[in-house]
Amino acid sequence: MPLLKLVFLGTGGAVPKADRMLPAIYMEDWLGHRVLLDAGEGAQYRLLQIGVSPPSLTMVAVTHMHEDHTLGLPGLIITSRFLGGRLKVLAPRTAHGVLERLGVEVGDSHVEERFKATCVKVCHTVDACGWLFEWDVGYKLDLSKVEGLPKRALTELIRGRPVEVGGRVVTPEEVADPAHKRFRRLLYTGDTAPCPKMWEAVGNVDVLIHEATFADDVDPAKAHDEGHSTVDDAVEAARALGASVLVLTHISARYPDKRRHRELASRVVPPPHIYVPEDFETLLVKL
């Protein structure tokens, strides 16, 4: 079952609070990938608190080089090196030179057979990537169309590979259940103002983790000029991207708690289902 674990290690933005630390989200998928989304100050300590060792990370995906998203990175790099690992960091290309000098493997994408991470440009005040993660869960076959095919052929078709049976090539598309989604997708925006060009580039996603720096007490135009979004902006993005799950994070320290964000989210009908997590809250998502 495609199950995704998200642990929100820091849900604040720019200025920390005692109970709301700087941006960092731990993501673990059913294939065993361990990904840290942004690395706010003290990120390695928060990982250790949930039992995750820095060298065990598959990668750290940094959205941009503002300090609230990167101050925890040097500690992660040094600890990983001491423990015999070499951290892989995904970041915007303009940051690669700086990161290479820190002795890490740097890239702006990560591709495996069933898992892919890609930088998607967002609308912030500096060069910034939203990170799009995509999982290939294979085809679900229509049993009425594959009757009599050998088990080996079924395995290949599920994995998306054509097979030759009895002198004829059978493609996955001809025998697949049309109602089944082969690819499951999550987008983490990092910091961004409303960004229609990003929505067009991405297409649909299942899960959207979107910043909501402001609730409804700030002029949206001011928020957008600062490269940030309101709750309403995040909801608009979720609808544009067809997300069934929306997570709101990067909450400004101007709010003593998240009650207003939750109140605004509760008014949204129909879906997406909206979550406003606290630090160290875990969300399990069935994709």
From TrEMBL:
InterPro entries: Metallo-B-lactamas, RibonucZ/Hydroxyglut_hydro, RNase_Z/BN. Keywords: Endonuclease, Hydrolase, Metal-binding, Nuclease, tRNA processing, Zinc. The keyword Nucleus does not apply. The active site is at 68 (proton acceptor). GO terms for molecular function: 3'-tRNA processing endoribonuclease activity; zinc ion binding. It comes from the Archaea. Zn(2+) 2 binds at residues 68-69, 191, 250. Zn(2+) 1 binds at residues 64, 66, 124, 191. Residues 33-251 form the Metallo-beta-lactamase domain. Gene3D superfamilies: Ribonuclease Z/Hydroxyacylglutathione hydrolase-like (3.60.15.10). Its cofactor is Zn(2+). It is an enzyme of class 3 (hydrolase). It catalyses: Endonucleolytic cleavage of RNA, removing extra 3' nucleotides from tRNA precursor, generating 3' termini of tRNAs. A 3'-hydroxy group is left at the tRNA terminus and a 5'-phosphoryl group is left at the trailer molecule. It holds the Pfam family Lactamase_B_2. Binds 2 Zn(2+) ions. Its EC number is 3.1.26.11. Belongs to the RNase Z family. Homodimer. Zinc phosphodiesterase, which displays some tRNA 3'-processing endonuclease activity. Probably involved in tRNA maturation, by removing a 3'-trailer from precursor tRNA. This is Ribonuclease Z.
